Amino acid sequence: MLCEMLKNKKILHILKKNKIPAAIYNEIIKLATFRNPEYYKAQAKRMSTYGIQKSINCLSENNDYLILPRGCLEALKGLLNFHSIEFGLKDHSFEGERIEVNFHGHLTSKQVDAIQSLVTHDNGLLAATTGFGKTVTAAALIAKRKSDAKSQGWPPPHHIYAVWANPL
What are the residue ranges of helices labelled H in the chain? Predict the structure, then answer.
């Protein structure tokens, strides 16, 4: 096996990076790199782009590993399969403690749609406007998964926690 991957809730480690061919190594770097919208906004307005990175690389590495955001997993699998590189995946994700909670609130149809979309994936991001009810949606998602909030990216920032701790 040329490539072994370790996955946890936050990052993806690729072991044996020294055995990955240089061309594929560069393609892996591209998976974790995206264009910086601030650079292109400044450029479009004919403002100085000095000191603004053109692209943002989310990959880091050490002597043994390439470390990518977990959101790159499917693209990485596709890349390795395309190049017929055999790989293994060890999932070290913390699934959280099983908890018995029920959600007794009322959700809007958009919140229900968001939960249905989020519950089908291991990771995701709920981005919505002010007043959408993101905290209530997250509480309903926790109740649906029956898993403690720590495994799902909570507890929330302190100011949110102070407001919602007792009602939840």
Answer: 22-31, 37-44, 73-82, 109-119, 134-145, 158-164
Q: Which structural domains are found in the chain, ordered by start?
A: 3-91 (3.30.780.20), 109-164 (no CATH)
Helix pair 134-145, 109-119: axis angle to 10 deg:
50
- Claim: this prediction has a pTM higher than 0.70: no
Rounded Cα distance, 126 and 1, in Å: 36
Task: Please state the φ and ψ torsions of residue 165, each to the nearest 5 degrees.
Answer: -55, -50
pLDDT in tens, 14-46: 767 777 888 888 999 999 999 999 999 999 999
Q: How many angstroms separate the CA atoms of 27 and 32, rounded?
A: 9
- Bridge pairing between strands 87-91 and 3-7: parallel
* 3-state secondary structure (DSSP) of residue 6: strand
The DSSP bridge pattern shows strands 33-35 and 60-61 to be unpaired
Beta-strand pair 33-35/87-91: unpaired
Q: Write out the two tokens for 103.
A: 């959600």
Residue labelled with tokens 């991957």: 5
